[in-house]
Backbone:
């Protein structure tokens, strides 16, 4: 045995180590060339990296971190979407579960291994399972490898990844090219030693795609990021097994479909080669790629083929730095394209003929886009409504982001019926059609049909279901992103009487619950304030009818009588008001509530609202009476101060909006438009907003302003006297107001606006605390109890309307407050058709409120490891009205259609046996005007704002909805239509609705035929 230190021993050890090293080197070289070992190992891991979709929410799922692809399709936002949708009444029905291997890889930062989608986009499916909205994004993609012209593939590989499709390597890992990786590693090491040195990329197409799809921001931040990209790309390449030919072809397809080509104004981010051709060069991508595919173009076709090829090549070259090449430096892209045209011809990828023709062809990105049909979608009625709702529910930030999500929505809408309804509503905007269908004449459109095209129609129809109410038809003719049904505050006129009637009866139901158990003796001794007519009636009724059931008690309340006289003045809303009936014949009659509701008598509902308000003021504790009657009541200062705060803010807001944003000179010039302007007010305002002017300038300005004035003869002596007695430094704010007969806060607002250009109203409120307190100091003095009492009454009325608002809000009223005036009973507080429909749903469901939905189910990321399906919950159900109240209201609404203002809709629809379907409803006409009045209440100016005609209806046992006609702006003054227009249109729609209702209606031959 040789000793360890001898020369022969050292030689043998060297030979052994050399042999092992050589063998490892040969093995590594063989592996780098064939990928056989990694093919076996990685394919096993990839095939264990799977997912399933199972019922309920998943705990075995990891959402991506923020790659551009994952953000665009909504995968990164899914946890937030689920949270928001859960708050909105949805629950996870089923969700993906990662396998243990996929879950473990996700923990290492490896993206899930599956066949990723090249196209996303929102789709909306109707209640019959038909897709009626599809926003495919990108609109054009390559569906398979064979769809890409061979020369385009070869050009891409020459530029980016020449070994990707090299034949003879069936097991090859396309994510790693060892020579490229080694070169990049050496360069990276040199960059560490010499910072700033350019480092060539080591990324294959497979790795690049992982980067711009799944790395945050689409960039590689560190060597660890690069390793994760390579690991994911490698595993993805072996998901079909050890052979990678199919996966390598898919890499080419996916890359072509996924490249980002910057953003084009009016469209947004441009994704994929086909869409880049359409949007950057304005060509039809299908035709362009067909031209390129021609192998032997004729002499005549050669220029078109060469031009098409140059466009494609330039885009492939722009992919690395798209913003720079396509927007900032197109000349650099031109030079690079010409260089590669020569190189590709030398390699035999393109012919010399194509090269020469392409070099002589001038192209530049930025032409007018060619918009494929798939992205030229219309904004259809129900789809627009659902997209608006989705944007709000998801917090998606607008249609741009929403339409790019990987999301399919099951809606409740019957699109076929919606199209039928929309077709009719659009047709009657034609004056000739409107005349032919009987929509012109008294209380309808002008007799000649003029102006028919300017009327906006809206229609909603809901179906009551078990636990939810479903929107079936939603249509309007506005033709904009604004939704008339749920995004506009409208004066819906007498439909407010429906809300008032419900509140009136609800109060009586509460009184019945409080009083029905009392004995006649207790009721006789019950303390009722003289102003509380409702409690007084209830006490007297139950005293005479002890233990009367609620149903008959409510029916009796419908029989109470009120006067229809307009002669009485009503102190409400801070002033004395007079109201008028639509029909003058009602002025000298008395009506039961039932009859007044049938005929929509304004003055009866004004008086009913007064009773409801006074019930809230004087009923129960009687606190209002104590505060009003006792000058020393401890709550009086509180109510007076509250009134002062509320009114002072109202006045300040009015004055500040008048002067905000104007220069001092503009403020003074604006005063000259007021014919009631006095020399004293003008002098004070001038000195307040222009303190820099001396006495001579002020006097000259005042005399010039009133020169030749018919009423005011301002001499120099008078101007001087006014000047001396109007020094802002000498008088307090209230004194200046008294001297000029001007509200003190107007003077303060003008001064503040002049000194604080750009200040907001909230800043004005904050700065005006002392001024507002000083302006109302007179009211806070205890020696004026009679003046305080009137203000306290106003505050108590405001409190009463807050209580009424809470009742309306519970029944779906959409706004934050009511106008504290009896006029709210006839529509002054406004409404929305959608909110009115919610009240109808409660009445239809016997007083039980359940959610109204238009989105049944949302399917996110279907077929991916992130798949999540959420459905509407049916558990948000609550009784909000007594059954007796809704039954009485429903019968009253049936009476409106059978005998009252909704008569035109009577017997519009029949069942298969020829029996009329019961229709109940409430009509409303809104005539909204903006008026200015003087101190005596006389109207100075009047301007039309809008006119509306509304019919809110219950249709049979299950359906309900609202139809409206609406004209906005000064042109509304040219129309005199009433709710008769809405009921007549409802009658016209009956044939279009019958298939949905399951009823037969004889079609009107005058109505345009609706296909489908």
Residues:
């Amino acid at each position: 045995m040789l000793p360890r230190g001898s020369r022969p021993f050292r030689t043998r050890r060297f030979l052994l180590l050399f042999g092992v090293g050589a063998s490892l080197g040969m093995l590594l070289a063989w592996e780098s060339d064939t990928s056989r070992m990694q093919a076996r190992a990685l394919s096993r891991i990839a095939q264990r990296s799977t997912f399933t979709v199972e019922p309920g929410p998943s705990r075995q799922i990891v959402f991506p971190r923020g790659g551009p692809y994952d953000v665009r399709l909504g995968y990164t936002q899914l946890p937030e979407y689920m949270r928001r949708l859960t708050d909105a009444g949805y629950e996870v029905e089923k969700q993906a579960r990662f396998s243990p291997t996929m879950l473990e890889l996700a923990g290492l930062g490896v993206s899930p291994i599956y066949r990723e989608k090249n196209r996303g986009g929102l789709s909306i499916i109707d209640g019959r399972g038909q897709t009626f909205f599809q926003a495919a994004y990108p609109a054009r993609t390559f569906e398979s490898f064979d769809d890409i012209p061979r020369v385009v593939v070869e050009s891409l590989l020459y530029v980016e990844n020449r070994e990707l499709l090299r034949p003879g390597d069936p097991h090859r890992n396309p994510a790693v090219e060892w020579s490229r990786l080694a070169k990049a590693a050496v360069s990276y090491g040199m960059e560490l030693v010499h910072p700033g040195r350019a480092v060539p990329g080591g990324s294959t197409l497979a790795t690049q795609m992982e980067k711009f799809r799944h790395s945050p921001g689409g960039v590689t931040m560190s060597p660890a990021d690069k390793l994760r990209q390579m690991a994911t790309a490698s595993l993805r390449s072996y998901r079909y097994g050890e052979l990678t030919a199919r996966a390598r072809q898919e890499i080419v397809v996916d890359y072509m479909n996924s490249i980002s080509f910057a953003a084009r104004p009016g469209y947004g981010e441009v994704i994929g080669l086909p869409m880049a051709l359409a949007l950057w060069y304005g060509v039809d991508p299908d035709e362009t790629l067909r031209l390129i595919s021609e192998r032997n173009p004729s002499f005549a076709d050669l220029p078109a083929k060469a031009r098409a090829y140059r466009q494609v090549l330039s885009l492939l070259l722009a992919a690395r730095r798209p913003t720079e090449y396509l927007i900032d430096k197109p000349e650099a892209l031109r030079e690079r394209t010409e260089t590669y045209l020569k190189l590709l011809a030398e390699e035999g990828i393109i012919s010399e003929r194509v090269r020469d023709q392409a070099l002589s062809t001038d192209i530049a990105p930025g032409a007018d886009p060619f918009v494929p049909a798939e992205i030229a979608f219309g904004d259809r009625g129900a789809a627009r409504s659902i997209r608006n709702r989705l944007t709000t529910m998801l917090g998606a930030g607008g249609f741009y982001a929403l339409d790019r999500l990987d999301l399919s929505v099951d809606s409740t809408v019957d699109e076929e019926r919606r199209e039928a309804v929309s077709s009719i509503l659009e047709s009657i905007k034609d004056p000739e059609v409107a005349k032919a269908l009987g929509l012109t004449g008294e209380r309808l459109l002008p007799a000649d049909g003029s102006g028919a095209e300017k009327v906006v129609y809206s229609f909603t129809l809901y179906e009551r279901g078990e636990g939810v109410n479903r929107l079936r038809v939603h249509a309007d003719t506005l033709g904009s992103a604004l939704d008339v049904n749920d995004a506009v505050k409208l004066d819906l006129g007498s439909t407010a009487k429906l809300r008032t009637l419900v509140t009136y009866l609800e109060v009586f139901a509460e009184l019945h619950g409080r009083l029905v158990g009392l004995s006649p003796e207790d009721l006789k001794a019950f303390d009722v304030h003289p102003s509380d007519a409702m409690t007084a009636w209830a006490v007297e009724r139950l005293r005479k009818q002890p233990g009367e059931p609620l149903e008959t008690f409510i029916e009796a309340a419908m029989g109470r009588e009120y006067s229809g006289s307009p002669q009485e003045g009503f102190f409400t809303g801070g002033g004395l008001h007079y109201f008028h009936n639509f029909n003058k014949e009602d002025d000298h009659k008395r009506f039961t509530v039932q009859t007044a509701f049938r005929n929509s008598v304004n003055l009866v509902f004004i008086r009913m609202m007064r009773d409801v308000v006074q019930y809230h003021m004087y009923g129960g504790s009687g606190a209002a009476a104590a505060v009003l009657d006792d000058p020393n009541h401890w709550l009086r200062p509180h109510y007076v101060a509250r009134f002062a705060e509320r009114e002072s803010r109202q006045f300040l807001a009015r004055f500040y909006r008048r002067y905000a944003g104007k220069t001092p000179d503009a403020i003074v010039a604006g005063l000259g438009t007021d014919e009631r302007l006095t020399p004293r007010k003008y002098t004070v305002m001038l000195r307040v907003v222009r303190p820099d002017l001396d006495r001579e300038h002020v006097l000259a300005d005042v005399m010039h302003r009133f020169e030749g004035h018919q009423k005011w003869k301002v001499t120099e002596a008078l101007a001087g006297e006014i000047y001396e007695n109007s020094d802002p430094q000498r008088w307090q704010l209230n004194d200046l107001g008294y001297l000029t007969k001007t509200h003190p806060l107007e003077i303060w607002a003008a001064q503040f606006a002049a000194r604080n250009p750009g200040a907001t109203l909230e800043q004005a409120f904050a700065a005006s605390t002392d001024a507002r307190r000083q302006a109302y100091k007179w009211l806070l003095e205890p020696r004026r109890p009679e003046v305080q009492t009137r203000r306290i009454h106003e505050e108590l009325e405001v409190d009463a309307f807050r209580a009424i608002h809470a009742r309306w809000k519970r029944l779906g009223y959409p706004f934050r407050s009511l106008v504290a005036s009896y006029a709210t009973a006839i529509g002054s507080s406004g409404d929305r058709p959608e909110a009115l429909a919610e009240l109808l749903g409660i009445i239809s469901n016997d007083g039980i409120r359940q959610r109204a939905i238009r989105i049944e189910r949302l399917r996110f990321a279907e077929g991916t490891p992130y798949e999540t399906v959420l459905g509407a919950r049916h558990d948000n159900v609550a009784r909000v009205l007594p059954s007796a109240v809704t039954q009485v209201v429903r019968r009253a609404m049936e009476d409106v259609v059978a005998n009252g203002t909704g008569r035109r809709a009577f017997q519009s629809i029949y069942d298969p046996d020829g029996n009329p379907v019961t229709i109940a409803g409430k009509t409303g006409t809104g005539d909204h005007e903006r008026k200015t009045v003087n101190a005596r209440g006389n109207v100075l100016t009047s301007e039309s704002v809008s006119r509306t005609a509304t019919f809110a209806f219950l249709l049979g046992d299950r359906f309900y909805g609202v139809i409206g006609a609406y004209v906005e702006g000064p042109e509304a003054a040219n129309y005199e239509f009433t709710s008769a227009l809405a009921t007549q249109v409802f009658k016209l729609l009956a044939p279009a609705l019958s298939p949905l209702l399951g009823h037969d209606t004889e079609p009107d031959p005058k109505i345009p035929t609706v296909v489908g």
User: Anything to note?
Assistant: The chain has 41 helices and 20 strands. The radius of gyration is 39 Å. The longest strand covers residues 939-955.
